[in-house]
Design brief:
Radius of gyration: 18 Å
Number of strands: 2
Strand content: under 5%
Helix content: 55-70%
Order of helices and strands: HHHHHHEEHHH
Strand order of the largest sheet: 1-2
Shape: globular
Number of helices: 9
Number of domains: 1
Length: about 210
């Protein structure tokens, strides 16, 4: 089998494949030495897939499957799908939803996760938060927004989502600044984080997920 039909097969199988894949990023961008290299690699993949009509339709189907889980409030499942859509559906909006769902999971599970345990109450320690939030800010929010700005013919309809992401990233940046020099035993204000996130990025109705 030649490489081109194989790539088409893998891309169009994406919606089914991402459902069963583990909660890890399929593609490890850490091998690229600079942020610019990471952006260049991503944009090249985006341009190649979107220039092919059938692959572009499969890309949209894979994303919609993830959006529908998000609309149901199933943030862990949505995060897993967006993570594994990295390879099959390279789109700037994936980065925005990875950041958003990751932070919503942490905010919702603060009292249950071992990361937050402290005698007598739940606590997300400030330095743990700063490290996690800074990584999300630079590798997901800022990356997604930068890539969106670099794509001149990006499909319309997602402007409000990206604008929300800009506001949230600015709020998160301010929150990081507030806590970055605090003592590690300091507990962050989870309500502050929830205010940064606000309401979910998108609302219904559900989106079509046609087979590819």
């Amino acid at each position: 089998m030649s490489i081109k039909p194989l790539l088409t097969l893998l891309t169009c199988a994406a919606p089914a494949m991402i459902q069963a894949a583990p909660a890890t990023h399929i593609e490890d961008f850490s091998t690229y030495r600079t942020r610019a290299q990471r952006q260049e690699q991503f944009l090249d993949k985006y341009n190649r897939l979107t220039s092919n009509a059938s692959q572009a339709a499969c890309q949209r189907s894979a994303l919609n499957a993830s959006f529908n889980l998000y609309l149901d409030g199933k943030f862990p499942e949505s995060y897993r799908n967006f993570s594994n859509a990295y390879t099959f559906a390279p789109d700037p909006i994936v980065f925005v939803f990875l950041a958003d769902t990751s932070l919503r999971i942490f905010a919702a599970d603060a009292a249950k996760s071992y990361l937050f345990k402290k005698p007598g109450n739940a606590c997300w320690r400030s330095q743990s938060f700063v490290a996690k939030a800074r990584k999300i800010l630079t590798e997901e929010y800022e990356m997604g927004l930068d890539l969106r700005a670099a794509i001149k013919n990006y499909p319309s309809g997602s402007e409000k989502t990206f604008e929300r992401a800009r506001r949230t990233s600015a709020c998160l940046d301010a929150m990081i600044t507030e806590y970055e020099n605090s003592a590690d035993e300091t507990c962050i204000d989870i309500q502050y984080l929830k205010r940064c996130l606000g309401q979910p990025l998108i609302e219904g109705p559900k989106r079509s997920v046609p087979p590819c």
